[in-house]
Each structure stands twice: as structure tokens, then as C-alpha cells.
């Protein structure tokens, strides 16, 4: 329970009897109220306040109770009610906090100075203790009740304009303010939105937020009571006849003002009731603006999603950026917007759109202002006031606020406005939503561009393959043709319009090999590349091909692939002809081996018998022996040509010098010599290399009558030369032909065998040397 001090009030109060002092009980914790009333004369001090029981000894109850806390002890409240003691509350609390307490009769808000508070308190004491107090209190209560009832009208407003109109109507009807208006803040100005019907023309005007009492009310958020305009230096009334007024802030939305043409037309109670009214207005306005913001946001998001359909259909980066600024202007309703891209260390305008008077910003440095900060950090920025922003560096003096959103690592989107505070977090959110679609579309365009380039490259490669090629996909397990190249049309004789969309196996796989084709298809599905010789049907009949089946992805499950057909029909025909020739050679070799060798063996036997029994004719028998030896040599060479020809076996690295020495040991060389020191190794079939060298050595010694044979290394391979008769220049083109010989006992096959062995190894052989000065055989390996 707060201490209570009784202090008499000055005897000049109206309705008071001078001889009967006014008893005032003051309850405060720090004696502030007691000090304010301590110098009031004729004080009848009564210490303490009776509780619920009747006063003892006929003690007189106080005429008024002044407190700083409206929450009184229940016993005090009971005494107040029973004794009908008026209670005045001196507090910063709003009247709405205790308006329902029936025992509260007066309300005083502390002034800027103690003198102001004292004056207001004495006025309130005069009022609540006068004869008309109860009637005035009832009227005041009626006004508060009516004001509360009117809040339903305010809450029922569906638009801000409707709310402003209802506010001035309530002020007219209930608070009985003849001239009042509502002004809202737009940018840097307070603009009238609703004016009472009784206000004279131009009764309210647009003003700057730094101007007059309205500006002070908005900036400080504190209500203003102007009893006399002439005494308030900050007042700048719209009309000179305005003499008093009230100004109350509507949250951070604007200001409510009421004015009168006479001084002292408003008091604390008017201010309190106005604050009560505007409190409801501010709450309703906050709700309406939140709802409106949500509706606008939802509408813009809906329109943005609709616009994204057009946005994502862009097929080039330039088209995408132009559509971006068009969406920002038409759907998000940004007055002016740009897309900047980085080019050669600068920001370059890639696209721009403006509702009116576009500003050309040109090329900008990458590290400059909000643009550079956004690109560097990758974070969006909302700039409410460009001039006041420490980062922003405006390119001209026309822009007041802006939004910056990064476009991946490509550039930055910016929206700007001439006024400050034109954008809010919702605008930034919508801009980020727009740019998220732009970034996704940009990546898609870049990917498609890469795919198009790759597809164009593959198309060109596919078309320029010299062999017949088919691209196909598996549909229902069947290889369905997707496209063919021009080589396919030429080789197979089927046009693209005939085979595209068909099962290629049904068109070109011959009867009886379907299992083979199915094996290829299964391998392709599993990601296996295959190569095989196949026979396929063409429009002109069957042909032979080397088939290369290529999956799209190796070692993975595939839905399609490529088939490349290399026409080997002529090669296969040559192989078949060669096979038939080899078969005939084998047959010939068999005849030579059996049908000629056996008679020669018999002839050798009878020759030997004739030598044993003959008594003369030895010379003739020797000629027969020579003929038989020549025929045996001829048979050996023919068998070599027929059975080996241009065929070599497995090759390995062979030392040329060692092969030459081995070949030399197989010959009757008489007094001839071999010189060899090449140090060369060759990839060769060793027995056939020895045979090649042996034939050259035999040719040099037996037919060229050489006394020395030398092997040397050359830049291209090696050479075999001798000091024999040599080979005439005119005959050098003929020496490798079958049957060429310079002696009567030669077979004419020795050098032919040399050439065939060389060609079987992939070597070339030519004849050189001086005419009549020895022979030289040069091998290029």
C-alpha cells in the first residue's frame, strides 16, 4: 500500500467554500506529488486512509485521492466507492489501461516540467471536485464507450482509403472535431489522404517529414497538444486562422491532426481520446497493409510464375536477359531495371527496360558501388537510400533507391527508382525469385548450346563417315533405325525414308543368321563394342561387310547405338580367289613332289647302275647327271614357291649378322669370303631370312663367280653386295622375274624367292651396283 499524504488545495478552486479546506490524499512512493502540492495554503492534513470500516471519531473522509498507480488495495477501493471519493491517476500509462475502472474519475499525464504537471493536476482537481463533475465524467465515459463501439467500424475497413475516411468521420461524430485529417508518409513527404467534410478548402497540404508539428510528430512518434498556435514556435498551420490543435502519430504510417480556429479548444482528455482512436487506426492500418502486401506479393508471384513460362522459353542468352528486364518492368512493376554482365573487366549493360526516361549508365568498373559489392560477395543488396548508403556509388543523381541481385558468376541484375525507400524486402525477395529462374534458364541454355555444338559435331562426323552407318535405338527390344548416312544409302541401296523407323535386322540380316544379329544386339545393350565379319542383304544382293557395333556408353546399359558397315566384298572375293589359287598351287606342289620327284629318283637309280656297268660314254652320263641335278633343284625351288611363296611365320627380333653366318655355312663357298658386321636386329621369320640370304649368296658365288660377299647396314635397312660379274643395268628390272637366269644350269627361281620373302616381311628390294663391277641388293625394311 502506497503512503498517503493529505494536502489542502488553493482556495481559488471553483465551487469551494473558503472556510472549508479541501482535503486531498496523495499516494506516491517518492513524494513527487506531495512536493507539487506542498505549498498550497489552508491544508487540512489527515494522516492515513480508513479501510473498509467506517471512520473513527467522526473523522472526515478526503475530498479527493491522487495516486500514481491505479491498482489500489481492495480495502481502499471499497472505501473510495462507499465514500464516493474521486480518484485521480497521475501516470505515463495510456488511459485505455484503466478506462474500465469505475473508481477512477480523473487522469493526468506528467508534463515536460513540474510546473506543467502541477497546473494540469490543479485543473483536474478543480474539475473532479466541482458540482458538474459527475455529469462531465458520465459524458466522458459515454464518449469513451462510443469510441470503443466505433472501433468495429474501423476494423471493418477493407482498404486503407476506407479506413482513413472512417477515421475522420469518427473524429467528427464522437470526438466532435470539426476540422481533422489523416496524412500518410510517401517517400520524404506527408500527403493528405482523408479530410473531414467541414474542413475548408486547402485545409490540409502536403509537407516534408521535417516540416512543422506534423513532421515532428512523425519523426519522434510523440503526440503534440497545441493549446495556442501563437505560443508554439514549431507550428506551421496550413491556414492562418488555425489557433489550436492536436497531432498524433499513426505508427510509422503517418499522422492524424485536428485543428480549431479558436485557442484552447483541446485539452488532455481530447488528446487521450485521440490517442485511443489512433491506436486502433494504427493497428488496423498495420493489418490492412500486411494483408495488402500479402495480396500484392501473391499477385506478383502468380504473375511471375506465369511470366516464367515465357522467360524459360528463351533460346539465347541475349534473349533471356531482355525478357528478364521486361518481366521486371511488366510483372514486378519495377520502374527501371538492368542486366549487367562482366566483359573485359567491366560491367556492360546486356539489357535494360524503363517505364519512362531511361538512363544510359554505360560501362562501369567491376569494383564500383553496390553493383561490384553484389558481384564480389554473391549476396543480394537492398539499398533504401542511395545517397546515405556507404557502399552505393550512384552513376547519376537521379536514383534514390535500388535492388541488386547476383546472376551466378555472369553478372548482376539491378532495379532502381528515383525516390528513396521505393523497395522493400518483398521486392528483393521477388527479384531473387526472378533471378533464380534466370540462372536456371541460363545454365540450360549453356548446356543446350554445348549439346548443340556436340550434336552438330557428331552429326557432321556421322555424315562424313566414309562407310555405311546407322544410328538406332531399342524399342520393345527391336533395333529401330533413327537415321542413316549417305554412305548407307549408296552402299545398301535403301533411302533413309525407307528404313528410318524400321527394324534394321528385318531389312538387311539374311535368313539363317538371326541368332548372330541377336548376339550383337544383346552385347550392345550391355555396353560392349563388337567387331565381326558379316554378310548382309543390300538392294543389289548380298555383300560382305566388316561390322563395327558401337554403344553410346561403354560398360553401361544402353538404349541404342551405332552400326558401321565397311564393305569388304571385293577383298573377300580376292581372298576367295587367292584361296582357290593356293588350292591349285597345293595340287601342283603335290604333283611336283610325287609325280616328278619319283621318276627323277628312278632315273638317278638307273644312272648309277649305268655308271657301274658302262665301259665308256662317261661324258654322256655326266651330262645326264647334271640334267637330273638341275631338275632336282628346279623341283625344290618350285616346291618353295608353291608351298611358302609370300608367307612368313611368327617373327621375332633376329640378329642379321648371325643369320648371315648361318646361311653361309649351308653353301659350298670354295675360296669365297663373307664380310658382315652390321650390328643390326630385324623383326623377321628367322628360317625364311636365312633362306633369303642363302639364295643371294648362292647367286653371287655360283652365277656371279664372286670371291667376296659383304653385308652392310644402310639408312633404310641393309644391303648385300659382291665382287662378281654384276648385273647389267638393262636387266635389273627383270632379275626378280620367274625363270630369269644367266647360266644354263640355273632354275630362274632363286631371286624370285628372294623378292617374295622380302615382300612377305613388308620389305622392298632393289638392284644396284656398278655395271660389270659386282651386284648389290638393297633392302628397305
TrEMBL record:
Enzyme Commission (EC) number: 2.7.13.3
GO molecular function, one term: phosphorelay sensor kinase activity
Catalytic reaction equation(s): ATP + protein L-histidine = ADP + protein N-phospho-L-histidine
Keyword flag Ribonucleoprotein: no
Family matches, as Gene3D superfamilies: 1.10.287.130, 3.30.450.40, Histidine kinase-like ATPase, C-terminal domain, PAS domain
Pfam families with a match to the protein in the record: GAF_2, HATPase_c, HisKA, PAS_9
Domain (PAS) ranges: 454-527
Domain Histidine kinase residue range list: 591-781
Keywords, ordered alphabetically: Kinase, Phosphoprotein, Transferase, Two-component regulatory system
Name of the protein in question: histidine kinase
Amino acid at each position: 500500500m502506497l503512503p498517503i499524504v493529505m494536502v489542502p488545495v488553493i482556495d481559488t478552486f471553483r465551487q469551494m467554500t473558503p472556510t472549508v479546506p479541501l482535503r486531498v490524499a496523495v499516494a506516491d512512493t517518492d513524494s513527487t506529488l506531495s512536493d507539487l502540492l506542498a505549498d498550497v495554503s489552508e491544508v487540512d492534513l489527515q494522516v492515513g486512509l480508513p479501510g473498509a470500516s467506517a471512520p473513527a471519531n467522526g473523522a472526515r473522509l478526503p475530498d479527493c485521492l491522487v495516486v500514481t498507480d491505479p491498482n489500489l488495495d481492495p480495502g481502499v477501493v471499497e472505501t473510495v466507492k462507499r465514500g464516493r471519493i474521486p480518484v485521480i491517476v497521475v501516470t505515463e500509462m495510456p488511459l485505455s489501461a484503466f478506462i474500465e475502472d469505475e473508481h477512477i474519475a480523473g487522469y493526468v499525464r506528467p508534463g515536460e516540467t513540474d510546473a506543467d504537471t502541477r497546473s494540469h493536476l490543479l485543473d483536474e482537481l478543480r474539475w473532479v471536485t466541482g458540482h458538474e463533475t459527475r455529469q462531465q465524467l458520465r459524458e466522458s465515459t459515454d464518449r469513451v464507450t462510443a469510441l470503443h463501439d466505433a472501433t468495429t467500424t474501423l476494423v471493418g475497413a477493407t482498404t486503407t482509403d476506407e479506413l482513413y475516411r472512417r477515421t475522420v468521420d469518427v473524429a467528427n461524430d464522437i470526438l466532435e472535431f470539426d476540422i481533422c485529417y489523416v496524412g500518410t508518409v510517401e517517400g520524404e513527404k506527408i500527403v493528405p489522404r482523408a479530410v473531414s467534410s467541414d474542413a475548408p478548402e486547402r485545409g490540409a497540404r502536403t509537407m516534408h517529414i521535417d516540416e512543422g508539428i506534423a513532421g515532428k510528430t512523425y519523426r519522434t512518434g510523440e503526440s503534440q497538444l497545441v493549446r495556442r498556435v501563437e505560443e508554439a514556435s514549431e507550428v506551421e498551420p496550413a491556414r492562418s486562422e488555425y489557433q489550436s490543435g492536436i497531432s498524433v502519430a499513426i505508427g510509422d504510417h503517418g499522422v492524424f491532426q485536428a485543428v480549431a480556429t479558436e485557442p484552447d479548444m483541446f485539452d488532455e482528455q481530447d488528446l487521450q481520446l485521440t490517442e485511443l482512436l489512433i491506436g486502433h487506426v494504427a493497428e488496423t492500418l498495420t493489418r490492412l497493409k500486411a494483408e495488402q502486401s500479402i495480396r500484392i506479393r501473391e499477385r506478383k508471384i502468380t504473375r511471375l510464375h506465369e511470366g516464367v513460362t515465357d522467360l524459360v522459353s528463351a533460346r539465347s542468352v541475349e534473349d533471356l536477359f531482355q525478357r528478364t528486364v521486361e518481366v521486371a518492368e511488366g510483372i514486378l512493376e519495377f520502374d527501371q531495371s538492368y542486366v549487367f554482365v562482366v566483359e573485359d573487366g567491366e560491367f556492360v549493360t546486356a539489357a535494360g527496360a524503363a517505364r519512362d526516361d531511361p538512363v544510359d549508365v554505360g560501362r562501369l568498373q567491376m569494383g564500383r558501388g553496390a553493383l561490384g559489392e553484389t558481384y564480389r560477395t554473391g549476396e543480394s543488396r537492398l539499398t533504401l537510400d542511395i545517397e546515405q548508403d556507404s557502399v552505393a556509388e550512384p552513376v547519376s543523381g537521379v536514383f534514390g533507391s535500388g535492388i541488386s541481385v547476383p546472376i551466378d558468376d555472369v553478372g548482376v541484375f539491378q532495379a532502381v527508382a528515383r525516390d528513396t525507400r521505393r523497395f522493400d524486402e518483398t521486392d528483393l525477395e521477388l527479384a531473387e525469385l526472378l533471378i533464380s529462374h534466370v540462372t536456371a534458364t541460363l545454365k540450360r541454355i549453356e548446356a543446350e548450346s554445348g549439346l548443340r555444338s556436340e550434336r552438330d559435331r557428331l552429326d557432321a562426323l556421322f555424315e562424313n563417315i566414309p562407310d555405311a552407318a546407322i544410328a538406332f535405338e531399342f524399342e520393345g527390344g527391336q533395333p529401330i533405325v533413327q537415321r542413316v548416312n549417305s554412305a548407307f544409302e549408296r552402299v545398301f541401296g535403301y533411302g533413309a525414308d525407307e528404313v528410318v523407323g524400321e527394324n534394321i535386322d528385318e531389312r538387311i540380316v539374311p535368313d539363317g543368321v538371326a541368332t548372330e544379329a541377336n548376339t550383337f544386339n544383346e552385347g550392345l545393350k550391355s555396353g560392349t563394342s563388337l567387331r565381326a565379319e558379316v554378310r548382309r542383304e543390300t538392294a543389289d544382293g548380298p555383300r560382305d561387310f566388316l561390322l563395327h557395333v558401337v554403344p553410346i556408353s561403354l560398360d553401361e546399359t544402353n538404349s541404342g547405338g551405332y552400326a558401321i558397315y565397311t564393305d569388304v566384298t571385293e577383298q573377300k572375293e580376292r581372298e576367295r580367289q587367292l584361296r582357290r589359287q593356293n588350292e591349285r598351287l597345293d595340287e601342283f606342289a603335290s604333283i611336283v613332289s610325287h609325280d616328278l620327284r619319283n621318276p627323277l629318283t628312278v632315273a638317278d637309280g638307273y644312272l648309277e647302275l649305268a655308271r657301274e656297268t658302262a665301259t665308256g660314254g662317261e661324258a654322256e652320263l655326266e651330262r645326264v647327271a647334271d640334267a637330273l641335278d638341275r631338275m632336282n633343284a628346279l623341283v625344290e625351288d618350285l616346291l618353295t614357291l608353291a608351298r611358302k611363296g609370300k608367307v612368313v611365320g611368327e617373327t621375332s627380333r633376329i640378329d642379321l649378322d648371325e643369320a648371315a653366318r648361318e646361311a653361309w655355312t649351308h653353301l659350298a663357298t670354295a675360296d669365297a669370303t663373307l664380310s658382315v658386321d652390321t650390328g643390326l636386329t630385324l623383326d623377321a621369320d628367322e628360317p625364311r631370312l636365312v633362306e633369303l640370304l642363302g639364295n643371294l649368296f648362292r647367286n653371287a658365288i655360283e652365277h656371279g663367280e664372286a670371291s667376296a660377299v659383304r653385308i652392310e647396314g644402310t639408312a633404310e635397312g641393309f644391303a648385300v653386295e659382291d665382287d662378281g660379274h654384276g648385273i647389267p643395268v638393262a636387266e635389273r628390272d627383270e632379275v626378280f622375274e620367274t625363270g630369269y637366269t644367266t647360266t644354263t644350269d640355273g632354275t630362274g627361281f632363286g631371286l624370285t624367292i628372294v623378292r617374295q620373302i622380302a615382300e612377305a616381311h613388308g620389305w622392298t628390294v632393289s638392284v644396284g651396283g656398278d655395271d660389270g663391277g659386282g651386284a648389290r641388293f638393297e633392302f628397305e625394311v
